[in-house]
Amino acid sequence: MARVVLVTGGSGALGQAITRRFLAEGAMVCVPWIVEAERGRLAASVDAIARPRLVLERCDITDDTAMAGLTQSLLARHRHIDVLVSAVGGFAMGDLAQTAYVATHAVVPPMLAGGGGRVVAVASRAVVPPSGGFIAYTVAKAGVIALVQALAAETRGRGVTVNAVLPSTMDTPANRAAMPNVDPKTWVPVEAVADAIAYLAAESSGHVTGTLLAV
């Protein structure tokens, strides 16, 4: 039976790499979206063989009711959600602490009821330790780390693992546009971050929880 993976932020630059990584493993991947152009780019980047396993659902994941509805819809269709990847947000948009909370609030209870699951959030290596100059971003990402560690403690021994990846600067179109004078070869490819997430989400990673994996 194919694993069911929910990737919030799955239509963004990193999210697309994550989505394709799980599709390559044979998973059914659901991506909530609100930006039409991003949805179109993601759909176009997925090959014809994997396309039937990609579910694109318009959903504002900052809205508790909308996120709960999406979760219940997935459960009604597939009976289980095996992996939640919270990758929504970015340096200049979104409140990742809030959106990660909304997603886990909706998805973790049915995971616990079903006896297992994997939650992987995307934080940032730049906030460990915190530095000045971008305090809103720092606090939001630090909030994700605290959420992951607290939730890992609460779910320990119950079949659900909760971990985070902490990327340094990633090679994305937005970062290239924002920092045109920096050599992107020194940055982390989004595929490498997707690989780290896939490791933490693997069924074989059942003993890894509360981990902050720097990439």
Q: What does it look like?
A:
This protein is an alpha/beta fold and 215 residues long. It has a single domain (4-214), classed as 3-Layer(aba) Sandwich (Rossmann fold). It is built from seven helices and seven strands; from the N terminus they run βαβαβαβαβαβααβ. A seven-stranded parallel beta sheet has the order 3-2-1-4-5-6-7, with helices on both faces. α1 (13-24) packs across α7 (190-201), α3 (64-78) runs parallel beside α4 and α4 (96-114) packs parallel to α5. The longest helix is centred in the C-terminal third of the chain and has 21 residues, at 135-155. The protein is globular, with a radius of gyration of 16 Å. The mean pLDDT is 93.
Q: Can you write the helix and strand succession as a string?
A: EHEHEHEHEHEHHE
CATH class: Alpha Beta
Q: Supply the CATH architecture.
A: 3-Layer(aba) Sandwich
Q: What is the mean predicted local confidence, pLDDT?
A: 93
Portion in beta strands: 15-25%
What is the CATH fold-level name? Rossmann fold
Number of domains: 1
Query: Based on DSSP secondary structure assignment, what is the total number of beta strands?
Result: 7
Number of helices: 7
Distance between the termini: 31 Å
Which structural class is indicated by helix and strand composition?
alpha/beta
User: How much helix is in the residues?
Assistant: 40-55%
Strand order of the largest sheet: 3-2-1-4-5-6-7
Low-pLDDT segments: none
Q: Rg from C-alpha positions?
A: 16 Å
Q: Tell me, what's the shape?
A: globular
**In this structure, how is the largest beta sheet organized?**
7 strands, parallel
